[in-house]
TrEMBL record, chain A:
Name of the featured protein: Protocatechuate 3,4-dioxygenase
Residue intervals of the Intradiol ring-cleavage dioxygenases domain: 81-109
Gene3D superfamilies from the UniProt entry: Aromatic compound dioxygenase (2.60.130.10)
InterPro entries according to UniProt: Intradiol_dOase_C (IPR000627), Intradiol_dOase_core (IPR015889), Intradiol_RC_Dioxygenase (IPR050770), PCDO_beta_N (IPR024756), Protocat_dOase_b (IPR012785)
Molecular function GO terms recorded: ferric iron binding; protocatechuate 3,4-dioxygenase activity
Family indicated by similarity: Belongs to the intradiol ring-cleavage dioxygenase family.
């Protein structure tokens, strides 16, 4: 017996960031100078770890309280971030693990290498995770992170952002990206966001204020949908049967 | 109908348009550890333990691979995160992730000796370990592969410039079962990275 496994469609690079983008100084010495070598997909690319049944902690998806002392909560604008993860063929990406991390409301990360003047919030760690449901939907609670300055050779400030790490169904779908907030004037002057030379693709990284899902007198909601690479050709495991 | 009422409760339109296109990648940044390895980053108590593996190693059949990631100035990078994925034909694969040491930049992975591998057409090809690398300054995660010996007459390997193939082969160390695999982001020894 063979088990059919779907490959992925080729990655479209025109909506992706430049790997060498000198305005984002760190890319200069860290981008490959040779062209990427295109190879046909293999079993190792179309399969991947499946974290759908992972036992998550009750507060894993609640950054407002998951690092806070009992009875305390993080300082900042209380928000819900939610959305769906689908592939390029609109199919929900089910049981996908999403990991998020971010700065606190003052723009400071809880990390030994971050020495920004803004203070740490004793009740905010800055990490969370959740798994998508049958419809590809996910949701977490957090505080809106602050913008912050970073050493890039000039007066550069990051737009407020939340980092996302997503595991799709295959290792070739693996994605790390950043979510921005609708209306943030820093997006258009940020070398990291602007390393994507495609306004639509940058807009796709921008979460929308979603009043219908807000909780009155408690939290506002932002909607952020994500798209992973779509299906390509079919391959078969355990049997020499191509397509 | 009160127009203000509808505006107050309006659901957001999606940030995504048709035709659907893959969400753009952005750098994992210098603080990737907070989200992916928080306990290692000193953030205790949120997750019981860091998510560093999936699947299990078969006992007694493991090898160790260690190395550094080196930038275009020849400097060792101390803020990399590497993920290793080894599929198993017909079974649950083995995934592991490591950060390079924040002080020394060394990474070390204990992994199973790769067994068989097939390409999308079902042909048997030389086994390898798939590697994915993210960090500050890397805008799209880099994909490479570790081979433990030079593949012979391999369909995939033959697509690589002959002079660069050696960058994908781990060097055996003195102790049996131990290998070195350095990843050069640039320079004369630049590792082969793939568009998969």
């Amino acid at each position: 017996m063979s088990r059919a496994i779907r490959g992925f469609s080729p990655r479209q690079y025109d909506g992706q960031p430049e790997m060498n983008y000198p305005d984002y100084r760190s890319t200069v010495l860290r981008h490959p100078k040779h062209r990427l070598v295109a190879v046909p997909q293999t079993l190792a690319d179309v399969t991947g770890p499946a974290f759908g049944d992972m036992a998550l902690g009750e507060l894993d998806s609640d950054l407002i309280v998951n690092y806070a002392s009992p009875g305390q909560s993080a300082i900042g604008e209380r928000i819900i971030v939610h959305g769906r993860v689908v592939d390029e063929a609109s199919r929900p990406v089910q049981h996908a693990l999403i990991e998020v991390w971010q700065a606190n409301a003052g723009g400071r990360y809880r990390h030994k290498n971050d020495s920004y003047l803004a203070p740490l919030d004793p009740n905010f760690g800055g990490c969370g995770r959740c798994v998508t449901d049958e419809d590809g939907h996910y949701q977490f609670r957090t505080i809106r992170p602050g913008p912050y300055p970073w050493p890039n050779g000039g007066n550069d400030w990051r737009p407020a952002h939340i980092h996302f790490s997503i595991f799709g169904s295959g290792f070739a779908q693996r994605l790390i990206t950043q979510m921005y907030f609708e209306g943030d004037p820093h997006i258009h002057i940020c070398p990291i966001a602007q390393s994507i030379n495609d306004a639509r693709a940058v807009d796709q990284l921008t979460a929308r204020l979603d009043m219908a899902n807000s909780v009155p007198m408690d939290l506002r909601s932002f909607r952020f949908d994500l798209v992973l690479r779509g299906p390509g050709s079919t391959m078969f495991e355990n049997k020499l049967e191509g397509n | 109908m009160d127009p203000l009422e509808t505006r107050r409760s309006r659901p957001a339109k999606s940030n995504v348009q048709l035709p659907l296109r893959e969400t753009a990648s952005q750098t994992a940044g210098p603080y990737v550890h907070i989200g992916c390895l928080p306990n290692m980053a000193g953030i205790k108590g949120v997750f019981d333990q860091d998510l560093t593996s999936y699947g299990s190693r078969k006992s007694g059949d493991t090898i160790k691979i260690r190395g550094h990631v080196i930038d275009g100035d020849g400097q060792i990078c101390r803020d990399m995160m590497l993920e290793f994925w080894q599929s198993r034909n017909g079974g649950k694969g083995l995934w592991q992730r490591y950060a390079t040491d924040l002080e020394t930049g060394l990474y070390e992975v204990e992994i199973e000796f790769p067994s068989e591998m097939r390409d999308v057409e079902g042909n048997e090809i030389s086994p390898f370990i798939a590697v994915w690398i993210v960090a500050r300054g890397i805008n799209i995660g880099l994909s490479t592969r570790i081979y433990l010996s030079e593949p012979d007459n391999d369909k995939q390997f033959s697509l690589i410039d002959e002079k660069r193939r050696h960058t994908l082969i781990a060097k055996p160390l003195e102790l049996a079962g131990e290998y070195q695999f350095d990843i050069h982001l640039q320079g004369g020894q630049e590792t082969v990275f793939f568009d998969i």
